[in-house]
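hiii so my PI (J.) wants the whole complex modelled not just the main chain, which honestly fair. so below is everything: two entries, each one labled with what it is. i double checked the lines twice but i was tired so who knows lol
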Amino acid sequence: MLTIKDLKASVEEKQILNGLNFEVKPGEVHAIMGPNGSGKSTLASVLAGREEYEVTGGEVMFNGEDLLEMSPEDRARAGVFLAFQYPVEIPGVSNANFLKTAVNEVRKSKGLEVLDSKQFLKIMQEKMKLVEMDKAMTQRSVNEGFSGGEKKRNEIFQMAMLEPSLAILDETDSGLDIDALRIVANGVNALRDGKRSFIVITHYQRLLDYIVPDFVHVLYKGRIVKSGTKDLALELEEKGYDWIKEEVDATLNA
Amino acid sequence: MSDDLKLLDDVANSEYKWGFVSNIESDNAPKGLNEDIVRFISAKKNEPEWLLEYRLKAFRHWQTMTEPVWPNVTYPKVDFQDIIYYSAPKPKVQLDSLDDLDPEIKATFDKLGISLEEQKRLANVAVDAVIDSVSVKTTFREALLEKGIIFSSFSEAVHEHPELIKKYLGSVVPYTDNFYAALNAAVFSDGSFCYIPKGVRCPMELSTYFRINSAGTGQFERTLIIADEGSYVSYLEGCTAPMRDENQLHAAVVEIVSHAEAQVKYSTVQNWYPGDKNGKGGIFNFVTKRGICLGNKSKISWTQVETGSAVTWKYPSVILKGDNSVGEFYSVAVTNNMQQADTGTKMIHIGKNTSSTIISKGISGGRSHNSYRGLVKINKSADNARNFSQCDSLLLGDQCGAHTFPYLEVSNKSAMVEHEATTSKVGEDQIFYCNQRGISTEDAVGLIVNGYCKEVFNQLPMEFAVEAQKLLAISLEGSVG
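here's the output for the full assembly
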């Protein structure tokens, strides 16, 4: 589904990704961990197409298409969803209205009929249950005045509505208390259907107790330097990143 | 709300779609302005002597005045001798039914989406349609008359209700008020007149639709609305003009009189031709609009959505004379490309316990300039007056300008005046967030700006709010580089 080859990217002329290789198959859940500044969020931003990030080399194929050639909205319409680390506020635009616009844009790009208000409302009510969201939240302006937990829940709610084939969760667990974490994770798990793939970017093993990944990768200095299973995350929690850093730095210096 | 997407879709890639010229034969006055032209207009309209006298007094006064230069706008000087002051669609027959209406005129209004055919109407709106200098058709007159409501063209009202015109014409905006008000008083052509009797709630929206069609003409309409004690009316005004390379002058006067416990809600969607991308052509919109709350507990509310015109100069105001009266001003002013707007309001507090609210949202894109200019004046007599003002500016690029000129004159210590102002830019972050959900940049800007204007759009009647959202999206096309 997603194949990343030798991806290099920089932001403000600073090289962050240094030849990253990575593959995601349908239905897989990949966790990406790594110390601060290793390039985790850069990877998410590059995949979503944020303008400030310049791709300086490599390729990213998504379902046979060159993802890097596509505009951010076309990537979204093709099924790439990014749950933002810092969801943006849009005053005066209700959550419901925003989502209806988004959902219908995605539908149009697939040649599907746009949903009328009634159909949309019905789907929305079903999906709201996934993240234990109350109705009032759909009428509030997008993320405006939302607590940290509400914002993250809203991201997962949007994901449920947009039904992407690849969802990237950028530190969705940051700033969440244990209850919010459980709600968010339950939402994600409910959307695991064997076909939808996930890239879960996180600092903490804790999230992976709830969203159990198929693979865990360690990102360091813009490359994936170690891959494993859920056990790798546990090992990292116990031992920290220093042993990996040492290993990598030794190879680089050799 | 849920229609946002559809609306934005409708308008994708469209230009000023009201820019067509209708092939209507017209009967014009010769170019230029002098006493003979004033007499010509008055004679064309078969006016009584007192009205001609009024016009002449105004004209003589106008000659002593100079154009105001204080607005924050620049434009080539208007040559007042190069304008046609009267243009009427020909042949002008007395219309008994819609069938008598020139098919071209009917087609023009159909094209504009304004149905003059009562039976086909969807919305509960009575329309007075004005092309160039004359009112061509007023719908629903009979139905309204049953309730005692007078809704007609200004010219007809002069003949049918001279006592009301005599009493109220110039009572809110005297011809001495300002340069363009004086000019209007001298050469005003037509416009709408409306009277709501005591205790009557007008059962439908009243609306005037103005259309400039002929080349080289100025439009000087005059509107007078009188709401007698305890009455209510909601009034709508819309306007468009063909795309022409030269600038055309529009200098209207609107007067509103609201008696005790009466309420007048006046909504405008101003969409005169704004000129092309390089600032060629477009309407000069120099308008004086003012209402007076004469009696106790009366209320006047202005809502305007300003998207058109090359240059706008307009301050819908309320004089709060009656005790406990309320004035409101809700405004969205959009400028794009080379447009300039200097708009705002004046709230003059005279009565006790009067209160006013000002919500202004300025949006600038392209190389445009958008100024808010507002005066809140609390007279000595206005005990416990209250004002709340909020002036927000939104910038859509880095070559446009937003300016705020709030004036406060408080002469009574018990007054409470609050002013809030913000300036913001549509954030890259907001646009990217929308993009990431599958929404294109153009649509994202429309969505964000509509959200920004929500407080004002909420004040508009439903039909108008939909129209306003569409307009906004069109006006903003290409505004973000």
